[in-house]
């Protein structure tokens, strides 16, 4: 069931993008700020305490590796996982580099999803604005519909696939803490980047700030 919701988050994103007008893309930033704050809160409130049940420096190393991995992936994705798309392709071929980097990110984020945390909800909320912006880019850049749909389909199955593997393969289960720590690093980087970019030039923006505060409160009381 949770796999279906993760998949549907991308479907919803595509459908919204079909009807979205360029000037309405601004409203996405408030939603994006909310999603980033919510993901960060779930990471800090739920995932972090879990991996530090037995404190050790090596867990910290995995978190740091996750942060570095995400920085590395964004050299290729140009920040698509936090709602940025800059692709300058005249040829309109399938954007493999974007696809691979985005898929690694999406695949990894499926791993720590479990019934003991609210990560499923956080990832769905994180995925919807990303899928909207990504789809919007594909549509307005004039990619063929089949290219767009293939891209989004495979992107959409990555997180459920990661989650499925982590739940069904005992070898992965053995390294649960290490993998979670790595993904925490990914989440820390992505979510703080969203928050950073949502306060452009450090200017105060009431709707975005409100969205951030509401997200933190909600995540705390879940
Ligand atoms: Zn960015
Ligand atoms: Zn993500």
TrEMBL record:
<feature type="transmembrane region" description="Helical">
    <location>
        <begin position="146"/>
        <end position="167"/>
    </location>
</feature>
<feature type="transmembrane region" description="Helical">
    <location>
        <begin position="58"/>
        <end position="76"/>
    </location>
</feature>
<dbReference type="GO" id="GO:0016020">
    <property type="term" value="C:membrane"/>
</dbReference>
<protein>
    <submittedName>
        <fullName>ZIP family metal transporter</fullName>
    </submittedName>
</protein>
<feature type="transmembrane region" description="Helical">
    <location>
        <begin position="6"/>
        <end position="21"/>
    </location>
</feature>
<keyword id="KW-0472">Membrane</keyword>
<feature type="transmembrane region" description="Helical">
    <location>
        <begin position="179"/>
        <end position="197"/>
    </location>
</feature>
<dbReference type="InterPro" id="IPR003689">
    <property type="entry name" value="ZIP"/>
</dbReference>
<feature type="transmembrane region" description="Helical">
    <location>
        <begin position="96"/>
        <end position="113"/>
    </location>
</feature>
<feature type="transmembrane region" description="Helical">
    <location>
        <begin position="30"/>
        <end position="52"/>
    </location>
</feature>
<feature type="transmembrane region" description="Helical">
    <location>
        <begin position="119"/>
        <end position="139"/>
    </location>
</feature>
<keyword id="KW-0812">Transmembrane</keyword>
<dbReference type="GO" id="GO:0005385">
    <property type="term" value="F:zinc ion transmembrane transporter activity"/>
</dbReference>
<keyword id="KW-1133">Transmembrane helix</keyword>
<dbReference type="Pfam" id="PF02535">
    <property type="entry name" value="Zip"/>
</dbReference>
């Amino acid at each position: 069931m949770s796999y279906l919701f993760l998949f549907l988050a991308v479907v919803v994103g595509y459908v919204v993008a079909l009807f979205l007008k360029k000037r309405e893309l601004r409203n996405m930033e408030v939603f994006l700020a909310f999603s980033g704050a919510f993901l960060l809160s779930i990471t800090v409130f739920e995932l972090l305490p879990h991996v530090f049940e037995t404190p050790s420096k090596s867990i910290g190393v995995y978190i740091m590796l996750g942060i570095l991995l995400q920085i590395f992936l964004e050299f290729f994705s140009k920040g698509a996982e936090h709602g940025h798309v800059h692709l300058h392709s005249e040829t309109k071929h399938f954007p493999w580099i974007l696809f691979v980097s985005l898929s690694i990110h999406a695949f990894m984020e499926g791993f720590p999803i479990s019934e003991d945390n609210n990560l499923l909800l956080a990832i769905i909320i994180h995925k919807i604005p990303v899928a909207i912006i990504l789809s919007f880019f594909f549509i307005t850049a004039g990619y063929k519909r089949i290219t767009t749909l293939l891209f989004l389909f495979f992107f959409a199955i990555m997180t459920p696939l990661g989650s499925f593997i982590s739940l069904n393969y005992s070898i992965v289960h053995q390294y649960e803490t290490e993998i979670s720590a790595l993904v925490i690093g990914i989440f820390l980087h992505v979510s703080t980047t969203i928050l950073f970019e949502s306060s452009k030039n450090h200017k105060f923006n009431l709707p975005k700030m409100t969205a951030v505060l509401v997200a933190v409160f909600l995540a705390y009381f879940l």
